[in-house]
């Protein structure tokens, strides 16, 4: 989820909280002035700061419970219980800003709770009371998600929320220390310092992760196993003989483009088609830049590799012509015709790519380049497009990477990769409560995948049958760790 989306949701929930706080304030004021003061002749005064604190606390509770319970989907993964540190391992292998941001946001979500509780409730000024309340609240939230099947239940959420509560209490102690210093009141510096231990520990842990990541030469592969698969009751078989020989394999570098470079690419692409870039419609994401022409055609360019997807909305409806004036998709075109059409869009690739007409898609064609090497360059990937009889392309999806060799690395043997599979050290998503009963390993090939630092690493790929179902692929990183 993008940060702007999260902020927008927080604004919506905050507005909801303000409205509820205003309604609750009116009810409380009526109860205080009419019932308590006039009817019951009460004499206790209501402190203005208490009223302000109650309003802020109510708004926060609305935002917190809405974010954790309302803004959740219900699907086949809902109600699953994810073990401790799962999200951290997943964030480590992907090493994307989105994954780490979700972890940090889960911590920050409970910081206000740890700050507001001791600020407004005297009993909560004992650290263990605030800690206990924070822990109970996050456990209740996760339990509600489990019962209502609202999203995935993660043990990491309990940990992160609890850390947020402790950090919030540390912020309160720091705030109290500053106030005491200004008012020249006695205050325990030791207690204030001790309350900062959770913040320091979290900061050091994240710093350690970043330092360790920066010091490793290659990036992390998203296919790294996040949670070990339990194969204790499974029958693992194979009819293949895997090599025990080790050796080396080349690692390549995937080109990474800046926002300015993708913009130049989009301008040149549209200019070649006689179109102009629409300055008012540019969407920049963490991994992709989306550009539109003034004709409202879209061009998606990935920063990593420069792969792209183009859609010409003015011709896309030609695939299913409704009348004789429409131009139909071009079926039965030869490779030369499709290549020439792509060249008109500025797209070229190796000559000996495998060409194929797509089944079930009129005018659809595919070019596949499988690890083709030309000197220090590696071409790998697939391009699909839809051609029409006027030689225009309705869509282009170009995922052919052009990588330059970085250097050779030692790799594990096929047999060692098979042993990792037998131990359950691979990535496979199981439905809640399901266990693999039978796993049959087929042929193994070496493919390439882009890691989190933009290197193109070799990966052993096993064709696999799981519980009688074919066409699964299991990936094991080949480079020695």
Poorly predicted ranges: none
CA gyration radius, whole angstroms: 29 Å
Shape: globular
Largest sheet: 14 strands, mixed
- Please give the share of residues in helix: 40-55%
Q: Tell me the strand percentage band.
A: 15-25%
The assigned structural class equals alpha+beta
- Tally of separate helices: 13
Walk me through the structure:
With 481 residues, the protein is an alpha+beta fold. Helices cover 42% and strands 24% of the residues. The protein has 13 helices and 16 strands. The strands form 2 sheets. Strands 3, 4, 5, 6, 7, 8, 9, 10, 11, 12, 13, 14, 15 and 16 form a 14-stranded mixed beta sheet that branches. A hairpin with a 5-residue loop joins strand 7 and strand 8 (308-311). Helix 1 (3-39) packs across helix 2 and helix 4 (97-108) crosses helix 7. The longest helix has 37 residues, at 3-39. The two termini are 31 Å apart.
Notable traits:
single chain; 42% helix; alpha+beta; globular; 14-stranded mixed sheet; two-stranded parallel sheet; 481 residues; 13 helices
Summarize the structure.
By secondary structure, this protein is an alpha+beta fold.
Topology:
Layout: H1 3-39, H2 48-70, E1 81-82, H3 86-94, H4 97-108, H5 111-120, H6 127-148, E2 153-154, H7 155-182, H8 189-194, H9 197-215, E3 235-238, E4 247-253, H10 259-272, E5 277-284, E6 288-293, E7 298-302, E8 308-311, H11 313-316, H12 335-343, E9 354-357, E10 364-374, E11 377-387, E12 393-398, E13 401-411, H13 414-422, E14 438-450, E15 455-466, E16 469-477
Parallel strand pairs: 1-2, 3-14
Antiparallel strand pairs: 4-13, 4-15, 5-6, 6-7, 7-8, 8-12, 9-10, 10-11, 11-12, 11-13, 14-15, 15-16
Helix pairs in contact: 1-2, 2-5, 3-4, 4-7, 5-6, 5-7, 6-7, 7-9
């Amino acid at each position: 989820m993008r940060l702007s989306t999260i902020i927008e949701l927080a604004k919506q929930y905050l507005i909801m909280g303000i409205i509820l706080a205003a309604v609750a304030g009116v009810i409380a004021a009526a109860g205080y002035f009419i019932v308590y003061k006039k009817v019951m002749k009460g004499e206790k005064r209501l402190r203005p700061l208490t009223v302000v604190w109650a309003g802020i606390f109510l708004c926060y509770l609305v935002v917190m419970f809405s974010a954790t319970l309302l803004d959740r989907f219900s699907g086949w993964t809902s109600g699953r219980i994810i073990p401790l540190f799962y999200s951290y391992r997943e964030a480590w292998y992907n090493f994307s800003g989105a994954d780490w941001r979700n972890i940090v946001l889960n911590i920050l979500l409970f910081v206000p709770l740890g700050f507001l509780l001791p600020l407004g409730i005297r009993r909560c000024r004992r650290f263990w009371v605030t800690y206990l309340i924070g822990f109970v609240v996050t456990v209740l939230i996760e339990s509600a998600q489990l019962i209502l099947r609202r999203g995935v239940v993660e043990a990491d959420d309990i940990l992160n929320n609890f850390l947020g509560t402790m950090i919030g209490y540390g912020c309160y102690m720091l705030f109290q220390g500053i106030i005491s210093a200004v008012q020249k009141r006695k205050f325990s510096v030791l207690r204030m310092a001790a309350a900062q231990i959770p913040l320091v520990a979290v900061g050091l842990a994240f710093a350690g992760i970043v330092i360790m990541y920066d010091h490793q030469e290659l990036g992390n592969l998203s296919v790294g196993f996040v949670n070990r698969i339990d194969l204790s009751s499974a029958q693992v078989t194979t009819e293949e003989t895997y090599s025990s020989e080790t050796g080396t394999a080349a690692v390549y570098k995937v080109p990474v483009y800046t926002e300015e470079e993708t913009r130049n690419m989009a301008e040149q692409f549209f200019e070649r088609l006689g179109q102009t870039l629409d300055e008012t419609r540019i969407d920049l994401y963490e991994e992709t830049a989306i550009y539109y022409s003034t004709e409202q055609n879209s061009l998606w360019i990935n920063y990593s590799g420069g792969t792209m997807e183009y859609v010409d909305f003015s011709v896309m409806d030609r695939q299913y012509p409704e009348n004789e004036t429409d131009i139909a998709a071009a079926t039965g075109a030869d490779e030369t015709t499709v290549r020439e059409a792509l060249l008109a869009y500025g797209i070229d690739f190796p000559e000996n790519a495998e060409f194929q007409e797509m089944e079930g898609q009129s005018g659809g064609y595919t070019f596949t380049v499988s690890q083709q090497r030309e000197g220090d360059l590696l071409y790998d990937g697939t391009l699909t497009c839809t051609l029409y009889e006027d030689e225009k392309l309705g869509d282009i999806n170009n995922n052919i990477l052009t990588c330059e060799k970085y250097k050779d690395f030692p790799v594990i043997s096929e047999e060692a990769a098979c042993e990792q599979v037998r131990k359950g050290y691979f990535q496979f998503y199981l439905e809640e409560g399901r266990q693999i009963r039978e796993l049959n390993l087929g042929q193994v090939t070496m493919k390439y995948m882009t890691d989190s630092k933009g290197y193109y690493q070799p990966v052993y790929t096993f064709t696999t049958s799981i519980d009688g179902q074919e066409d699964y692929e299991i990936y094991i990183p080949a480079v020695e760790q």
